[in-house]
Write a structure and sequence with these properties.
11 strands; single chain; five-stranded mixed beta sheet; rod-shaped; about 500 residues; alpha+beta; four-stranded antiparallel beta sheet
Length: about 500
């Protein structure tokens, strides 16, 4: 699959996931707004009912006061009823018109209950007429008392001080009852203000938290405007209550994110696999070239030795034999490198650790490599200053690590300047520090973090200006880690590269 195809598919699926997350966010927002609207409506209904309860409670209290004051009048009225009944039974006439009777006669007929309207019937005697007249007048009297009570409540109750008209404990109890009846069990804080905006009461645990979501309700709204009050309520945990609606969407969002992360991981694996495939193709191409050169040299030398038409001198035979031996060693070295890396990847590599003197081993490698550096026109310097260089490692693999780093310095040397290669050792605490530094072409910053990857080479594709499989530094890093050490690279393009190896010393 082409890289452009992978990118196109990834963009489509990624956009779909983001669209799905966007829709889920919109749904959560819409549900939160609906819950907020429902909450507002419920709170306003509860506050309205609380206000009505306060007015009704005030009416009941006033009626109780009026009832006490009118007990005496009720007793007199009861005695009068008894006397009238006696008078009616004795058929005594009484034509005296009291002021109360004159008042009732002035009322319109519509105010008289139908059940008490006197019919013109000559069969009724005078006593029955007077009794019915008394009952009618008693009814109108009681209605007048009620009218007076209502008038007094409407126009006289508001004359009291605003603080005296409200029992704040009853207000709190009524408010709590109405909210819980509406299904709201949140903590609330409330305060009361008079018509001038002056605060007259606030609950003991009042807090400004959540005051941005406050609700107000007019108290005693049937009073004149200057006598009204305001109840203000807010809910500190309202945000949590509103966002609780999102809980049902959390699993959906979580699963969507998991799918999105899984998709991203899958795409990353595909891209990495494709990159590894390309690097392996480069490896095969380079390996073919690396094997082809020594095989061709060996084949040519063998043909010359076997060609009877060519007169062979001792020097020619020695030269051809040397070519065969050197190219065979080169071929064997390349094969060994591939095999060692394969064994390392399978965790099946043999590692024979023993105590060695790192300075002595490095010195042997430097002497062996000295000729190769000189042939390239460069110089090799060794500064083995570590006083204690005893380490516990596999000698063969340790030698290969140093050899690979020095070989890279020769491969990546600059054409316009002689190679200057330096190998040094030093002791820092309980560790041995080995540095291999050159003045070669250097490494770009983007390539520097990947130089220890398998098959990775700065020059990829079918380029063979620098030979290799891309396994050398991967092998070096693997061996150093097996020796319980670390390796890092410092490089600047056009200035050279420095490898730093840290290994633990033997106690």
């Amino acid at each position: 699959m082409k890289r452009t195809t992978i990118t196109f598919i990834s963009l489509i699926i990624g956009a779909s996931f983001f669209g799905l997350l966007f829709l889920q966010a919109r749904i959560v927002d819409a549900m939160a707004k609906m819950r907020k609207a429902e909450f507002d409506e419920t709170v306003f209904r509860a506050l309205d009912q609380t206000s009505r309860d306060m007015e009704r409670n005030e009416t009941f209290r006033y009626l109780e006061t009026v009832a006490v004051s009118t007990d005496y009048e009720a007793e007199n009225l009861s005695a009068q009823v008894q006397r009238q009944r006696v008078e009616a039974s004795l058929a005594l006439g009484d034509t005296t018109a009291t002021p109360f009777k004159l008042q009732t006669l002035q009322r319109s007929p519509s105010q008289t209950p139908k059940a008490l309207t006197l019919r013109s019937n000559s069969s009724l005697d005078a006593a029955s007429q007077r009794f019915q007249e008394f009952v009618k007048n008693a009814y109108l009297y009681q209605k007048g008392v009620l009218d007076e009570v209502i008038y007094t409540i409407l126009y006289n109750a508001s004359e009291k001080d605003f603080r005296e008209r409200i029992d704040f404990r009853i207000l709190d109890s009524n408010l709590r009852t109405e909210l819980e009846a509406a299904g709201i069990h949140l903590t609330y804080h409330f305060s009361v203000y008079d018509a001038n905006g002056e605060e007259v009461f606030r609950c003991a645990d009042y807090s400004d938290k959540g005051s941005d979501y406050s609700y107000t309700q007019t108290l005693f709204r049937n009073d004149p405007s200057q006598k009204m009050g305001v109840l203000r309520v807010h809910f500190p945990d309202m945000d949590k209550y509103i966002l609780d609606v999102a809980r049902m969407m959390i699993p959906s969002v979580v699963f969507t994110l998991i799918l999105f992360l899984t998709f991203c991981f899958t795409v990353w694996l595909i891209v990495r696999q494709k990159r590894d495939t390309e690097m392996k193709n480069d490896f095969i191409n380079n390996m073919t070239h690396e094997f082809k050169t020594p095989i061709s040299s060996i084949s040519l030398a063998a043909q010359m030795l076997g060609d009877t038409s060519i007169k062979k001198t001792d020097s020619m035979v020695d030269n051809l034999s040397r070519v065969i031996v050197n190219e065979t060693k080169r071929l064997r070295y390349q094969v060994e490198k591939v095999l060692q890396m394969s064994l390392y990847e399978r965790n099946n590599i043999r590692f024979n650790e023993k105590e060695i003197d790192a300075n002595a081993v490095i010195d042997d490698v430097v002497k062996t490599f000295q000729l190769k550096v000189q042939q390239s026109g460069g110089t090799l310097t060794a500064r083995l200053d570590a006083e204690d260089a005893a380490i516990y490692v596999d000698e063969m693999h340790f030698t290969n690590v140093i050899f690979n780093l020095m070989d890279n310095a020769v491969k990546y040397r600059r054409e316009d300047e002689p190679l200057q290669l330096m190998v040094a050792t030093a002791t820092e605490g309980s560790h041995l520090i080995i540095t291999v530094e050159d003045n070669g072409i250097g490494i770009k910053h983007d390539d520097l973090r990947r130089i220890f990857d398998r098959f990775y080479r700065v020059h990829t594709g079918n380029k063979h200006d620098v030979k290799g499989f891309g396994l050398g530094l991967a092998y070096v890093k693997g061996m150093v880690e097996l020796m319980h050490g670390t390796i890092k690279a410092e490089s600047e393009l056009g200035r050279g590269t420095k490898f730093i190896i840290t290994l633990p010393l033997i106690d």
